[in-house]
Amino acid sequence: MTARATAPYGSWPSPISAADVARARLRLGFPTIHGDRVWWQETRPEKGGRTTIVRSGTDLLPAPWDARTRVHEYGGRSYLPLPDGDLVFANYSDQRLYRLAEGRTPLPLTPEPAEPSGLRYADFTLSPDGQHIWCVQESHASGAVRRAIVAIPLSGAATQDPRAIRELVSGADFYAFPTPSPDGGHLAWVQWSHPRMPWDGTELRVAAFEATGALERPRTVKGGLNESALAPTWLDETSLYVVSDWPGWWNLYEIGLRVESPQALYPAEEEFAGPLWNLGGRPYAVLEDGRIAVLHGQGDQRLGLYDPETAELTDFDLPYTDWKLQLSADGTTIVGIAGAPDIPWSVVAVNADSGEAKVLRAELDAPPDPAYLPLPRAQELEGPFGRAVHAFVYPPTNPTAQAPDGELPPYIVFVHGGPTDHATSVLDLEIAYFTSRGLGVVDVNYGGSTGYGRSYRERLRRQWGVVDVEDTVAAAQALVDGGIADPDRLAVRGASAGGWTTLCTITQSTLFKAGTSYFGIADPQSWLKETHDFESTYLYGLIGPVPGFERTYEERSPLARASGTACPVLLLQGRNDPIVSPPQSERFVDAVAAKDIPYAYLAFDGESHGFRRADTVIASLEAELAFYGQTLGFDPKNVPAIELTVGRRPVQQPPEPAPSEPAPSEPAG
């Protein structure tokens, strides 16, 4: 066995480069199975973040077509396979729907909007007669946002006469899951309106079709102001399945249209669904024989098979620790996207009878040597007032290096976005990029995170900027108190809502020596005015309604507290971000510059909310590592230096990425 080299934490040589992380940002999503064919979406960072559709390994969409819908700005499933083998997809540049026959040029199905991206479409299903696409339509005409469920003819007639698009349902602010009954006599859907978010309260509505094709007698059969109902699926013409969280956990129910009381299929203190950020995914799928493939658990999700005849739920014996809430099934085959701490997110096909699984595509073709991958330790850390805080702890991990005796490692607290989202245990090469160099990571599922029941996620109600900050600080302090982390070398970082928590934390606490905000919210009042419609009243539940809570917004604002920023800060921002616009970062930069607090600000052209391009991922990650080297006192290897600014200067240009680091010649265990 080769002896390990001794080097300070943070300076260990690593075979995991920022370019490797960028390649691992290949995003797989929304698998669909029909017969023996499986489709999925694939977002490719090395192709400028373009999303294509793949069928059983074959790329169906040539460049420059980009299958990405902007409904709610977060999008979702952007395609629908048709029975004849054609494909319908939403094209990113103009947001029109197109029909693609293999080997041919896509043909438009929707009219060209009067304004760029003025009409958008998502959550597609085929009408019972096979002649229309039923979906959510989002209109941005003259700045006003309106949504409806519409029927779009597959003939392409709407390109000649927009009136060929027939409106089926309207009146609410938001729609999801348009779902026709088996014989086409009814339509089920989910709707909600401002100021609720879909995890706050939604309504499952059902209506019958008249002979004219219009819907009559729409009524709510599940959900309400404080109940989130999601993902309806028809069992037959008079009953359907739905997920609801009315008892405090998203569980699966059967509802009869002629029966008053919904029946819980498997009541448990587990989640069988998650927050509806993206449209078009379903957390369960009904097999041909009536059994139901379900995802369930606390935090991470397991794949199980529920038998309605016996009311038994049996989990598959598979190596995956978590699944995305996107299942599809046909016959006895289930497809989904799964991963584990040593397995990247992968499109997986599972035989429901044998339990055998086959990987169809992985986000990372050649993962690093497992010896460099940290194994997360799931922990319940103690937060303020004795409340539990869920987290994954990743220790520094490198088989070829060790730290000098007595040295404690720096630790970075990762804060996820949302904030109604959660961290998972699945392999994240971004975490390994740091841990393989000798920095520990703690990924915090602070109060407000999903996966642990409604009461846990509602800890953040009107407490955003308080509970998330307290739990972030508590997670770091627990590692210090346990003798795991160096108290003088702690950093905190997050993106979007995680960037908000990062900025709140470094302006309220002196515990951290560095803070990194990826497109984080700096001033909540101005963000309410600047952001997109989907989240335009989100903060009413997280902080309070406006007018009425202006004082609270001011008290919570990192921008208002910027003069008290306790450490240097790195801000990274996409110039084309419609969700958290550049002025959010720029105002914070101006505020810390006025107080001579060291900072660096990198803005990237062509990037939106969440960096999608390989060169951006590389530049931002190397800048972040260099930033920690300066602020936490170590010498990172083979990354460009970053200049911290004191006082106001022009925005820095992202540095050129460094060459990939060579792997050690003889990795040792």
Describe the structure.
This is S9 family peptidase. This protein is of the alpha+beta class. It is built from 10 helices and 39 strands. Helix 9 links the parallel strand 38 (569-574) and strand 39. Helix 4 crosses helix 5.
Summarize the structure.
This protein has about 675 residues and is an alpha+beta fold. About 15% of the residues lie in helices and about 30% in strands. It comes from Actinoallomurus acaciae.
| Helix percentage | 10-25%
Strands, count: 39
Radius of gyration: 25 Å
Unreliable stretches:
657-669
Strand content: 25-35%
- For this structure, the quaternary state is single chain
Query: What is the 3D form?
Result: globular
Count of helices? Answer: 10
Main sheet makeup: 8 strands, mixed
Which structural class should the secondary elements be placed in?
alpha+beta
The side-by-side strand order for the widest beta sheet comes to: 31-32-35-34-36-37-38-39
Report, as a whole number of angstroms, the end-to-end distance: 7 Å
Distinctive features:
32% strand, five-stranded antiparallel β-sheet, eight-stranded mixed β-sheet, disordered C terminus
